[in-house]
Automatic annotation (TrEMBL):
It comes from the Bacteria. Keywords: Cell membrane, Membrane, Transmembrane, Transmembrane helix, Transport. Belongs to the binding-protein-dependent transport system permease family. Residues 94-302 form the ABC transmembrane type-1 domain. It is a multi-pass membrane protein. CDD domains: TM_PBP2. The keyword Methyltransferase does not apply. This is Carbohydrate ABC transporter permease. It is found in: Cell membrane. The keyword Cell inner membrane does not apply.
């Protein structure tokens, strides 16, 4: 008779473990299947509104009113985009928007990072006071009228720089970048000082390159905010057409199209013929696509930095 040992019954279990890596049976397969289905549905739900907006923008305005548009235009037309680009001012407005977006992003990133590096130095005795002052600006605002008079006293009314100078420093971006700088080993800075490097050299050669992930995230925030802004153009430069931004021109066009149904002359005024008038719905879809395309072209190149920079720069252990 063969004598059984306490471990003799584990043979089948060991063999089963070899045949089933992980020993969890169908659990990984079910999880991966469910996860894939869920993510596909999430992508469809996320993309469908944008795809439907594209369909509406390429569909005739009078036909759009009937509804029932899903994934393909029923009455294809370029009339909505012709209405958007009919005005010659929109091209100059596009250049103004590009210029303000680029300048605002570059200057905001550079100056905010310099200030964040200064406030991250523990030997700087005023860092807590200055940080507190900047944080207070996130909760309290002087208001619209005092802000307008401040721009007037600074001689920024009807000036291109009214788009750039007020947004040079952002308190939220400052806190995020400063928190990220705390994660950089202090030994790197001390080694650079021992080698004779000054503060600006340390910032430019060490801190700035190591902050690429969080700077890409902040750059995306600043660029989207500057590109989508139109209210400052309405407040400060509305009397100078050559300083109008793309978003402000599109907002005026959308307002004009709201009267297109009841007043055909207004429709003609925005470059729309009587036979194929645009509607507020169709012109709004075309305006949305025109305003979104530039940001959509930039975002894929910054996506790899987005999540990493936001997570690392927002929490300090």
């Amino acid at each position: 008779m063969t004598k059984k040992t306490p471990l003799s019954g584990l043979g089948n279990t060991a063999a089963l473990s070899v045949r089933r890596p992980g020993g969890r049976g169908m659990e990984p397969f079910l999880f991966n299947t469910f996860n894939t289905i869920f993510m596909v549905l999430l992508v469809i739900v996320t993309l469908y509104p944008f795809l439907n907006t594209i369909v509406v923008s390429f569909n005739a305005g009078n036909d759009t009113i009937r509804g029932g548009l899903y994934l393909w235009p029923r009455d294809f037309t370029l009339q909505n985009y012709k209405a958007v680009f009919a005005s010659g001012t929109i091209y100059n407005a596009f250049l103004i928007s590009v210029a303000r977006t680029v300048l605002s992003t570059v200057l905001n990133i550079f100056l905010t990072t310099m200030l964040a590096y200064t406030l991250s130095r523990r030997d700087y005795i005023f860092r807590k006071l200055i940080t507190t002052i900047f944080v207070l600006t996130m909760y309290f605002n002087a208001g619209l009228i005092p802000g307008y008079f401040l721009m007037k006293d600074l001689h920024l009314i009807n000036s291109f720089w009214v788009y750039v100078l007020p947004s040079l420093i952002s308190a939220f971006n400052l806190i995020v970048i400063r928190t990220y700088i705390y994660t950089i080993p202090e030994s790197l800075i001390e080694s650079a000082k021992i080698d004779g490097a000054g503060d600006f050299r340390i910032f430019w050669r060490i801190i700035f390159p190591l902050c690429k992930p969080v700077l890409a995230t902040i750059a995306l925030f600043v660029a989207v905010g500057a590109w989508n802004s139109w209210f400052d153009a309405f407040l400060y430069t509305s009397s100078r057409q050559e300083l109008s931004t793309l978003q402000y021109e599109l907002m005026k066009l959308l307002s004009s199209s709201m009267n297109a149904n009841s007043n055909p002359s207004v429709a003609n005024g925005v470059g729309v013929e009587h036979s194929t008038q645009v509607t507020p719905i169709s012109i709004r879809a075309a305006v949305t696509i025109v305003a979104s395309v530039p940001i959509l072209l930039v975002y894929p190149f910054m996506q790899k930095y987005f999540v990493v920079g936001l997570n690392v720069g927002s929490v300090k252990e």
